[in-house]
Automatic annotation (TrEMBL):
Protein name: ATG13 isoform 25
Superkingdom as given in the UniProt entry: Eukaryota
InterPro entries linked to this entry: HORMA_dom_sf
Amino acid sequence: METDLNSQDRKDLDKFIKFFALKTVQVIVQARLGEKIC
C-alpha cells in the first residue's frame, strides 16, 4: 500500500486545511465580537 500522498491528494488536503483554518479563525472572531458574519 502506498503511504505517500500523490500531488493531487496533497493539494486537496492543503486546500482543506486552509479552508478549515479560515473557518476556525472566523468562528473565533465572531465569538469575540459577538456578531455573525455570513
